[in-house]
Amino acid sequence: MKSTILKTTLREIRESLGRYMAILAIVALGVGFFTGLKVTKPAMLKAGGEYLEKNNLYDLRLLSTVGFDEQDVKELNSREGVEIAEGAVYVDFLAQDESGAETVLRAHSLLWVQNHVVVKEGRMPTAPDECVVDSLSFTRKDIGTTIRVSENNEEDTIDMFAGREYKIVGICDASYYINYERGSTALGNGKLKGYIYIPEDGFDTDTYTEVFIRLTDKFPLYSQEYKDYIDEAMDWAEPLCEDVAQARYERLKEDAEWQIADGERELEKRVSEADEKLADAKDELLDGEKEIEDAKKEIADGWQEIADARAEIGENRQKVTDSLSELEDGKAEIADGLELLEEKRIEASDMEDGDEKDAYETGLNLKEAQVKGKKAQVEAGLAQANMGSRQLEAAENKIAREEKKLEDAEKELEDAEKELADGWEEYEENRQKLADETADARKELEDAREKLADLKEPETYVLGRDKNIGYACFESDSDIVEGISNVFPVFFFLVAALVCITTMTRMVEEQRTQIGILKALGYSEGTIMGKYLFYSGSAAVLGCDIGFLLGSYIFPVVIWSAYRIMYRLGDIRIILDWKLGLISLIVSILCSMGTTIATCRYELTSVAAELMRPKAPKSGKRIILERIPFLWNRMKFLRKVSARNIFRYKQRFYMMVFGIGGCTALLLTGFGIKDSIKSITYNQFDEIQINDMSVVFNDPWYEMDNSDFEEIMAENAERYTLVFEESTDLTKGNKSKSLTLVIPEKAEDISFFLNLHTTHDVPIAFPGKGEVVLTEKLADKCGAGIGDMVTLQDDDMNTLELKVSGISENYVYNYAYISTETWTEQIGSAPEYKSAYINVKEEKDVHSVSAAVMNSDGVASVTVNADMKVRFSSMMKSLDYVVLLIIGCAGSLAFIVLYNLTNINITERLREIATIKVLGFYRRETASYVFRENLVLTGIGAGVGLIMGRYLHRFVMYNIDIDMIAFDVHIAPLSVLYSIVLTFVFAGIVDWAMNKKLDGINMAESMKSVE
After folding, report:
1. Residue where one domain finishes, among candidates 572, 592, 616
2. Which structural domain, as residue segments, surrounds residue 270?
3. What is the DSSP string of 167-211?
4. What is the pLDDT of residues 631-645, one digit of tens each?
5. Is residue 643 a part of any domain in this protein?
6. Mean pLDDT score across all residues of the chain
7. Reduced to 3 states, what is the DSSP secondary structure of residue 214?
């Protein structure tokens, strides 16, 4: 481009900066919207992929009904293609905080390699009694407090833990839980408050509840290569898991049999030893009884001897007493005799000496000698009697001592008898205790035998990441953003092209004389064309660059900020997709320079002389209103002028209407997306799936002990029904789709749990024999209509040929409903009901009931519809931010279009506006004269936009294709009102901004004619 042309072009840009900036802004907005939405999903996936890879989220999760041990983990690690296999422990438990309040937590063991946790506050645990906790459920102030394993837990649960208290040392995010979902539980009210992670030695168990595997090959997050890789891995992982579980089952069985046999041997040995001890104790007691009997006999004999001795002593004492009595009498006689002799002696002393006296004295002497002899005899008898008395006293003392001995012996005998009685009692107690212990031991052995007999072949599950709720939801959420990005930018570029066409058309028409002068001066058509191409192209390139850079940053950051409400995946990663940028640049250049070429081509073909003369005005024509005298004659003059200006200039009219209509359509579509998204959870879980919860059993209903479940149902459920559910493929022609097949045991009861109806709320009868009811999106994807024949086939190659009898409204997942009779007739056997739908009593808490159901025998899982509703509502709520971003961009686009078109409108009518100002119109009247047309055109454009928006909204929702979700495509009346009001608000803002331009019009300059 020659320097003179370049200078004039740059001057043109400077002097018409508003027009230039309009092109730049509209291109920047379109490119920013396009690239921003397009890179958002890759940016989200990159951020998520880096976070999960950095924290080594597992590839496969292995579960078994018999658990795993170290030997199993070693065997899994030896498999080719396995980078690392780690056994892990998890358990749900009732936890008490320091205030004593109880909640339900899930405790996980920390792994060395996989499923890392990211500490946000505090530190990682270093001791068995330390833990890190869920950042969604705990805060920084909880660090240092203690979590206690409640005594209200089952004994088996308490035994899982090495300790009873765990100190919180950190708050963390876990790569295993990337979103807000924490799952359900059989404890408490059925809802988990959160999770905790503790070191492996914080558990007291040798059995792993799960094994996590990281595979050797790495692929991008959610890529088809990764999905294919996992599918291939499943082919060997599932058999390997079954083999490992079977081997552990055999070991457990052998160990159990050995323990039972060893227990029987130990029991027999213990019983034998105990019997011997009891026999010895019994012999000792019998010997003790014999000794006691002998002692009793000896004591009795001793008492008899004492009695005999006392009798003999009594007799002897009587004799002594009698003898003493006689001796006392003798002593008295002797005393009397001595006294008499004394008297006789006195008499003899008075007698005269002589023979008589001598004879008398001799007689007295003889008598005295006799008395003395008798006295001596009596004294000797007294001495002998006294000695006898003393001997009797000694005998009595001896007897007393013997009595004391016998009393002591009797007391000892009583003690011996008591001890013997206690011995017999202890013997009986030991004998009973042995009998009880033996019975208990035999019962334990019997229970062990029953458990061994009931020990079933292990069931194994190999789960990929797609079964992790957070991982699966993140993919769905990112897909929604991608669906929007495939539609909206196209409309933005169309509006951008409209703005470019309008701007450049007006610019070329305004510079018609200048083009003629340049041609007259010898400038080639290419050079002149280059001036306008540079004008529009530079605006487009700059706008593209700005939009590309800002869009690549702002959109991912804003949308990621919204998704961070639900997800914990680190910070967003900014992606500059240069390929996308090149595409944007090409499209921007085509929209700007392409429209410029189309606009200038006609003018440049004219000769210079023709171009330098003013363009002849178009001949005036009557507008439609003028042909309606009833209306036209009653209109004021200024209203007539405005009407002529609106309808006479067709190009301006269509540009304004289409531009404003496009903005209204975008606003309406943005609000409509929100309306279509927010209602699906209510429609699905309050209007269609009207059951409170669904249950999956471990075994078919008629093969399991369901007494525990039925007892819970009798207490808590208003009603329940058995259901057969399985994953099935539907085929019609060359189209196939996966779905969940539902077969209720009693078709007449299903209306209490499912409300089958069309999108127009017309009830659908449950299908009869050979018929099927399909959900709406499923039928649409397969092209199936009422009356068509479809084929259903499950993994066991069971095939059903069915006629579509109804198409039911449905929004979450894909279902097909058939009757039990249909299955039985075509498959040849009744379906195995392994599920149930439940409606709880009105006064019962659904989560408490779900916990009780989950804790009952034979129940594998429980899904509460209220939780599903919250989950999908939260997922859809995150889209509000995306919709707000779309509405904001649509509003910006509306402002730019209105500003540009209004600016052009004023610019091309400068002479007209200057004329009415010269005629004495006041400022407000002048503004009203100009902007009245804008408001009318805005109203017409908004009306057209409502029609365009309706179809654009349907087109957008059709292209937001998420496999498990069907949207309730509608636009609420309030959204229509919002779209119209916002359009007029933007128009009002533009009119207010343009008032200054009206004030700046130079009337003298504007009314000059070209000479």
Report:
1. 616
2. 256-454
3. EEEEEEEETTB-BS---B-SSTTSB--EEEEE-GGGB--S-BSEE
4. 777 777 666 777 777
5. no
6. 80
7. strand
